[in-house]
Amino acid sequence: MWRMSAARRFAVISSSESPKDQKALFRRAVVVGGSVAGLMAARVLSDHAEDVVVIERDDLTALGAGVRPGVPQGNQVHALLPSGQRQLERWFPGFVEEALAEGAVTPPRGTNRFYLDGQLRQDPPSGPAAAQGIVSSRPFLEALIRRRVLAIPNVRPVAGRAEGLLMDGDTVTGVRYVAEGDNTVTGQKADFVVDATGRSSRLGDWLDAYDFPKPPMRRMAIKLNYATALYRRPADPDVWTCISIANPGPGRTARIGGFTPIEGGRWTLLVSGYDADRPGRDADEFRERCVRDFPPEFGEVATKAALEGEVHTYHQADSRRRDFHRLRRFPARLVAAGDAVASFNPVYGQGMTSAMLHASCLSEYLRGDPDLSRPARAYFADVKVVVDAAWQVSTMADLALPHVDGPYPAGYRAIRWASGLIFKASMRDQAVNHRLGQVTTMLAHPSALTSPRFLVRALSIGARA
Ligand SMILES: Cc1cc2nc3c(=O)[nH]c(=O)nc-3n(C[C@H](O)[C@H](O)[C@H](O)COP(=O)(O)OP(=O)(O)OC[C@H]3O[C@@H](n4cnc5c(N)ncnc54)[C@H](O)[C@@H]3O)c2cc1C
């Protein structure tokens, strides 16, 4: 089958245009997992099914805007990339305005600081560090998405834990689950099923139970350690946001940290380390780390602002992707989305945006006259484009870490050499800076950095830098 280039396909998937048509395909669609990926999938499916059921082990109707057990990473810093913000606005028109009215923050211009390898940069590069957009805590953002999705008349949540699939031959016909407060397994019939149960998804086991192969998994051991704390923020601080990226080098340990304003007049402050560099939960140790290992702005916040609550830690052993597109056999009427497909080193802020782009892939698939008696290969081909884009950016950067030992892509040395020069050039040249920012914020596919004209410009500027 003829397919567009990955860059063009990525541009279609990440478009900001809201689909106008509502093509009826199913009586009932079931989404398993009611977090970002599941909620976005439910929004898309509401255009195509009479009834959309979201099975989630946390009771979605009883949740507030706090951290919930099903998403333990919710108390860590969560940045929303501009591409994700664009998808939210696309699927929920007026989302940004609503988020701002509810307390999300846009830091005033000129109040952001960006440090690279300990040096303050006057002109921060585009990318997560410089993104002008809404910032908030993760539970706040998820609660807003949840409110919008649950307000759709044909979407209904069911509190329960999914345990497996229902199948008829090579076609998925529903989900088996245990309802909240019940010990019996119930079957929920469905014409289409989405697995959005996160990075620990057991879909492979559910497939195996029916003698279907499990999706092959690729991992990169990153051994990332996070610690995040909340602080009271003064009404009008000089510095609202500060990001510090220290790359590994002589006398330098790889560390990323940042603080951003969030709703409720607070800052959320992250310090991270790799491997044995592991920030703990102790508040004194956290403060010392801010003072000792990060730029002075971190120490200012940690010593002068009031700590609110506890320090929360999180360890992520690996980045991982499940390559559904490589499966020869797969049931019809089944897809996976979000972290259940791929989860990356969170320092690059790609997870929620990827989940939103997977929803866009689902919309492309369902609007494209799919043959529902066959596996959703066109969907997984689009998802591969999105996963490749995020994976290339995050794993290429992670391979530079001393404790990360592969797997290395073909041509790694040449790619690393070119990436180094592009990065240097981005510090000097607005056009290179802009293009690199488009890629790191998932507004463009990484192949945007490989066009001959761009490469000649970036490499020559980088070589002189
Ligand atoms: C420390 C950390 C920091 C991060 N920072 C960022 C960031 O800055 N920016 C960003 O974009 N992303 C970030 N991420 C990634 C982000 O959290 C995820 O990509 C995002 O939550 C999308 O995930 P998801 O919806 O696929 O899965 P999850 O959010 O993990 O949700 C899975 C859902 O499935 C439910 N579930 C699981 N099993 C079952 C079952 N059997 N039955 C019913 N329900 C079930 C769970 O309760 C949960 O609600 C970070 C992740 C971590 C770990």
From TrEMBL:
InterPro entries: FAD-bd, FAD/NAD-bd_sf. Pfam families: FAD_binding_3. Residues 161-364 form the FAD-binding domain. This is Hydroxylase. It comes from Paractinoplanes deccanensis. The lineage of its organism: Bacteria, Bacillati, Actinomycetota, Actinomycetes, Micromonosporales.
